[in-house]
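Sample entry (160 residues):
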Amino acid sequence: MPKAALDSFDRKLLTIVQHDADLTAEALGERVGLSASAVLRRLKRLRAEGVIVASIALVDPARVGKPTSFIVALEIERERPELVARLRKWLAEEAQIQQVYYVTGSADFILIVTAPDVEAFDALMSRLMVDNPNVRRFTTNVALGVGKRSLFVPIPRDGT
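Predicted structure, serialized as C-alpha coordinates:
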Protein backbone atom coordinates (compact mmCIF):
# COMPACT_ATOMS: atom_id res chain seq x y z
CA MET A 1 0.00 0.00 0.00
CA PRO A 2 1.51 3.37 -0.96
CA LYS A 3 2.36 5.91 1.68
CA ALA A 4 -0.24 8.68 2.01
CA ALA A 5 0.75 12.23 1.06
CA LEU A 6 0.31 14.18 4.29
CA ASP A 7 0.93 17.87 4.80
CA SER A 8 1.67 19.54 8.14
CA PHE A 9 -2.04 20.11 8.86
CA ASP A 10 -2.82 16.42 8.27
CA ARG A 11 0.04 15.42 10.55
CA LYS A 12 -1.12 17.72 13.34
CA LEU A 13 -4.71 16.49 13.00
CA LEU A 14 -3.64 12.85 13.12
CA THR A 15 -1.61 13.41 16.25
CA ILE A 16 -4.45 15.23 18.00
CA VAL A 17 -7.28 12.84 17.07
CA GLN A 18 -5.22 9.86 18.25
CA HIS A 19 -5.31 11.41 21.71
CA ASP A 20 -8.95 12.55 21.58
CA ALA A 21 -11.21 11.62 18.66
CA ASP A 22 -14.17 13.30 20.38
CA LEU A 23 -12.91 16.85 19.82
CA THR A 24 -15.21 18.96 17.68
CA ALA A 25 -14.11 20.20 14.29
CA GLU A 26 -14.06 23.70 15.78
CA ALA A 27 -11.69 22.65 18.58
CA LEU A 28 -9.47 20.77 16.13
CA GLY A 29 -9.44 23.77 13.80
CA GLU A 30 -8.32 26.07 16.60
CA ARG A 31 -5.45 23.74 17.45
CA VAL A 32 -4.16 23.36 13.90
CA GLY A 33 -5.08 26.72 12.40
CA LEU A 34 -7.86 25.67 10.01
CA SER A 35 -11.58 26.28 9.73
CA ALA A 36 -13.97 23.62 11.04
CA SER A 37 -15.09 22.82 7.49
CA ALA A 38 -11.47 22.38 6.33
CA VAL A 39 -10.87 20.03 9.27
CA LEU A 40 -13.96 17.97 8.38
CA ARG A 41 -12.88 17.71 4.73
CA ARG A 42 -9.40 16.57 5.75
CA LEU A 43 -10.70 13.98 8.23
CA LYS A 44 -13.13 12.65 5.61
CA ARG A 45 -10.26 12.33 3.09
CA LEU A 46 -7.98 10.66 5.66
CA ARG A 47 -10.72 8.09 6.35
CA ALA A 48 -11.41 7.53 2.65
CA GLU A 49 -7.68 7.00 2.00
CA GLY A 50 -7.46 4.48 4.83
CA VAL A 51 -5.11 6.59 6.95
CA ILE A 52 -7.71 6.73 9.73
CA VAL A 53 -9.10 3.22 9.96
CA ALA A 54 -11.36 3.63 13.02
CA SER A 55 -12.40 5.97 15.79
CA ILE A 56 -12.80 3.90 18.93
CA ALA A 57 -13.39 4.22 22.66
CA LEU A 58 -10.59 3.02 24.91
CA VAL A 59 -12.17 1.08 27.79
CA ASP A 60 -10.63 0.84 31.26
CA PRO A 61 -10.34 -2.91 31.98
CA ALA A 62 -10.64 -2.35 35.74
CA ARG A 63 -14.11 -0.84 35.24
CA VAL A 64 -15.42 -3.81 33.25
CA GLY A 65 -14.23 -6.77 35.28
CA LYS A 66 -10.44 -6.44 35.00
CA PRO A 67 -9.68 -9.12 32.43
CA THR A 68 -6.24 -10.74 32.38
CA SER A 69 -3.83 -9.98 29.55
CA PHE A 70 -1.74 -12.72 27.95
CA ILE A 71 1.16 -12.39 25.50
CA VAL A 72 1.28 -15.52 23.36
CA ALA A 73 4.01 -16.70 20.99
CA LEU A 74 2.71 -19.12 18.33
CA GLU A 75 4.83 -21.44 16.24
CA ILE A 76 3.38 -22.97 13.09
CA GLU A 77 4.33 -26.19 11.29
CA ARG A 78 4.32 -24.96 7.69
CA GLU A 79 4.43 -21.50 6.12
CA ARG A 80 2.17 -22.46 3.22
CA PRO A 81 0.19 -19.34 2.22
CA GLU A 82 -3.24 -20.98 2.42
CA LEU A 83 -2.54 -22.37 5.91
CA VAL A 84 -1.20 -19.03 7.17
CA ALA A 85 -4.19 -17.22 5.63
CA ARG A 86 -6.63 -19.59 7.36
CA LEU A 87 -4.89 -19.07 10.72
CA ARG A 88 -4.87 -15.28 10.27
CA LYS A 89 -8.60 -15.34 9.53
CA TRP A 90 -9.29 -17.45 12.63
CA LEU A 91 -7.22 -15.12 14.81
CA ALA A 92 -8.89 -12.00 13.38
CA GLU A 93 -12.36 -13.38 14.15
CA GLU A 94 -11.66 -14.03 17.84
CA ALA A 95 -12.73 -11.05 19.99
CA GLN A 96 -10.41 -12.01 22.87
CA ILE A 97 -7.41 -11.73 20.55
CA GLN A 98 -6.73 -8.01 20.50
CA GLN A 99 -3.58 -7.86 18.40
CA VAL A 100 -1.79 -10.23 16.02
CA TYR A 101 1.77 -9.74 14.81
CA TYR A 102 3.45 -11.93 12.17
CA VAL A 103 7.07 -11.83 13.31
CA THR A 104 10.60 -13.03 12.76
CA GLY A 105 12.48 -15.06 15.34
CA SER A 106 11.61 -18.27 17.15
CA ALA A 107 7.85 -17.56 17.05
CA ASP A 108 5.81 -16.98 13.91
CA PHE A 109 3.05 -14.91 15.54
CA ILE A 110 2.80 -12.84 18.70
CA LEU A 111 -0.71 -12.38 20.06
CA ILE A 112 -2.07 -10.00 22.65
CA VAL A 113 -5.03 -11.75 24.25
CA THR A 114 -7.48 -10.63 26.92
CA ALA A 115 -9.68 -13.03 28.85
CA PRO A 116 -11.80 -12.79 31.99
CA ASP A 117 -9.68 -15.49 33.66
CA VAL A 118 -7.19 -18.28 33.06
CA GLU A 119 -9.95 -20.82 32.40
CA ALA A 120 -11.40 -18.72 29.57
CA PHE A 121 -7.91 -18.25 28.12
CA ASP A 122 -7.27 -22.00 28.31
CA ALA A 123 -10.56 -22.68 26.49
CA LEU A 124 -9.62 -20.21 23.73
CA MET A 125 -6.19 -21.77 23.27
CA SER A 126 -7.70 -25.27 23.22
CA ARG A 127 -10.03 -24.18 20.41
CA LEU A 128 -7.07 -22.59 18.61
CA MET A 129 -5.17 -25.88 18.65
CA VAL A 130 -8.19 -27.98 17.59
CA ASP A 131 -9.29 -25.60 14.82
CA ASN A 132 -5.78 -24.94 13.50
CA PRO A 133 -3.72 -28.13 13.19
CA ASN A 134 -0.94 -26.11 11.55
CA VAL A 135 -0.13 -24.55 14.95
CA ARG A 136 2.81 -26.50 16.36
CA ARG A 137 2.87 -24.99 19.84
CA PHE A 138 2.46 -21.81 21.82
CA THR A 139 4.04 -20.24 24.87
CA THR A 140 2.29 -17.77 27.11
CA ASN A 141 3.32 -14.90 29.34
CA VAL A 142 0.73 -13.54 31.75
CA ALA A 143 0.82 -9.77 32.18
CA LEU A 144 1.16 -9.02 35.90
CA GLY A 145 0.65 -5.32 35.35
CA VAL A 146 0.32 -2.80 32.56
CA GLY A 147 2.80 0.07 32.37
CA LYS A 148 1.37 1.45 29.12
CA ARG A 149 -1.50 0.52 26.83
CA SER A 150 -1.76 2.39 23.56
CA LEU A 151 -2.13 2.13 19.81
CA PHE A 152 -0.78 5.66 19.25
CA VAL A 153 1.30 5.98 16.06
CA PRO A 154 3.85 8.81 16.22
CA ILE A 155 3.42 11.05 13.17
CA PRO A 156 6.71 12.58 11.98
CA ARG A 157 6.45 16.33 11.43
CA ASP A 158 8.49 16.38 8.24
CA GLY A 159 7.02 13.35 6.51
CA THR A 160 9.95 10.98 7.05
